[in-house]
Design brief:
- The protein contains 11 helices and 17 strands.
- Strands 1, 2, 3, 6, 7, 11 and 17 form a 7-stranded mixed β-sheet that branches. Strands 14-13-12-15-16 form a 5-stranded mixed β-sheet, sandwiched between helices.
- The chain is of the alpha/beta class and 371 residues long.
- The protein has 2 domains: 158 residues, ATPase, nucleotide binding domain (Nucleotidyltransferase, domain 5, 2-Layer Sandwich), CATH 3.30.420.40; 143 residues, Nucleotidyltransferase, domain 5.
Length: 371
Amino acid sequence: MKKFLKIKSEIFGLDINDFSLKVVKLKEKNGGLILASTNEMEIKPGIIEGGIIKNENALAEIIKEACKTVKGEKLNTKYAIVSLPEERSFLQVIQMPEIEEKEMKSAAFFEVENYIPLSIDNIYVDFQKILSDEEGHLDVLIVAMPKTIVDSYVSCLEKAGLVPFILEVESQAIARALIKKEAGAPSSAIIDFGKNNTSFIIYSGDSIRFTCSINVGSGQLTKAISGALKVDLNEAEKIKINNGLAAEDKSLNSKILEAAAPVLGELVAQIKKYIDFYLEHFFHEHLAAGGKVEKIILCGGGSSLKGLPDFLSQKLNTPVETADALKDILPARKNRQKNPVYSAIKNPLSFATALGLAERGIIESKQYPHI
C-alpha cells in the first residue's frame, strides 16, 4: 500500500552535457544556502553528441552511479531539475499589449510559429511574463525545444529511476546562478566557454533577451596547442592549464599565443557579430543602457584559462569578469577547502548550470513541499 508521508520534499539539480554530468543539491541554513551534495562524472564520447542522446542505456547507468556516489549527504530523493542542451533550444522575447495572464499564454502561443523555425506540432513550448509597464507594454519570454530531444531526456531519466520534475534550458539555469536581480542591474553578456562550443547569453531588464550557440570551444585550443608544440592532446591540455595565455617562458608563450590566435579570434568575431545582431533585431527601447552590453561574465570549464578575461576585455572593449557561482553559497571562500563537499568541485566555473538548477530546486520545493 502506498504511504503518504508528510515530509519536506528535496529536489536536486542535474546538469548533463556531451562530456560530463554534474549533480548539486542545496539546502537552506542560517538564512542562506549550503552545498549538501555534489558529484561530477565523465561521459564518454559518443553517448551524447551535440546535445542529442545516442545511447540512453549508457547515460542512464552514469546517472545512477553519479546519484549513488555523491559527496556529502545522500540524495534520498528521485526528483530532479534537469538541464536541456542550449544548442537545441529556441528562446525569444516577444512584445505584446498588456493582457490578462490566462489570455497571455493563449495569445503568445499563436505567435510562436512567427519566431520558432519548427512546426508547432513538433515542439514543446513554455512562456514566461518578464516585464510590463504603465504604457501597456508586455514582454514575454518564449522557450521552445523539439519534442524528440525532450522525450529522449525524459526516457533516459526514467530509466535511471529519477523523476524529471522540471526540464530547463541551460541558459536559464546559468543566468539564475550568476545574475542576481536588482534595480538598475547592468545589461550583461554571459559567455559559457565549454569544451566543444560556447553558449552566448544576453541578459537585460531582469531576463534573458538573446541566446545562441557558438561553435568554438576550449577543446579547439588544446588541439591547436597540440599541433603547434607537436605533443599529444593530454600534454597539450596540461600546458594550456598551467600556462594559459601568459607563460613565463617567452618562447613557449609566443607559441601558445600563435596557436591560440585563430581560435580566440573566431570566438571574438562571433561574439561581436551576435552583439550587433541583438542590437539590430532584438533590442527593446525601454531597456536600460541603450542596449549596450555593459559587462561580460565568463563561466564554463574553459574560462579558467589564464589571461582570457584580459584578452577578451581588450578585444571587445568591455569589462570582463570571471564568474563566482559559489559566491552566495555558504561557507565563506576561506573555509571551503576544509569541507569535502566543496573541495570535490574541482572547477567551480563549470558548475554554474548545476548550481542554477539546484537553486530552482529550492524554490520549487517550497511551492510543492510534499511531492
